[in-house]
Amino acid sequence: MSQPMYFPWVGILEQIGLCDTFVYYDDVQFARGFFNRVQIKTPHGIRWLTVPLLDWRRGQLINEVRIDNSTDWKRSHRDQLKQAYAEAPFKDYMLNLVDEVFSSDYDIIGDLAQASTDVLVRSFPEIALNKPFLKSSNLGIDGSSSKRLIDICVTLRADCYLTGHGARNYLAHESFEEQGVDVTYIDYDLDEYPQSYGSFTPYVSALDLIAHCGQSGVAHIRGKARPWRDFLSATENTKSKT
User: Fold this and answer.
1) In degrees rounded to 5, what are phi and psi of residue 207?
2) Distance CA 203, CA 65 (A)
3) Where exactly are the structural domains of the chain?
4) pTM of the complete model
5) How confident is the model at residue 238 (pLDDT cuts 50, 70, 90)?
6) Tens digit of pLDDT for each residue in 21-41?
7) CA 128, CA 113: separation in Å to the nearest integer?
8) CA separation for the pair 151, 155 (Å, rounded)
């Protein structure tokens, strides 16, 4: 389960590759982050591609926040990607994926973010494996925080919940176990691949991986699932050494 993000980083693809069912958590509060923007590498350093929002206000849900289509942000983003990856061997394939997303019009940021992730997944069919992709807003499950996540897992008959690192500060791990659901954290691989413009960074859009490696980039989409107790213990040990 993850909030939909605009052309997200490779870590999201690692999560998708490890799961059997993926849920776009689209009816939770929008917060400034990667839902409407993403980093790319350029000859001049890291740059942000940001989708403009229309009258966004605190408390809105991701599936309620509207896009400001009064400016031609699609053309701007495509032009920046074309320039940034002009020398990348699979730039045309990458731009074709972007064009596939941009060929449709979007009013809601959640819909655009989901479409951008879907096209990345389809470019690496090995990680999709015919698994279902669902929206939390379509499941009819109310509530919040860990209780709602547990109810979604139980409804989908999950025996394991895979989550990203941000959940370590709030997730009620034992409550999942009481419902027969194990909790695991993704152990990101952050595998290096040939990348332009200086030292490697994994924290850019997965479009970067596609532009440099094409579909063979699936070999760099790795990562493992780690039981939550092991993960939290390792996190505490790392903190104590710094």
Assistant:
1) -60, -30
2) 25
3) 10-140+189-222
4) 0.93
5) low
6) 999 999 999 987 779 999 999
7) 17
8) 6
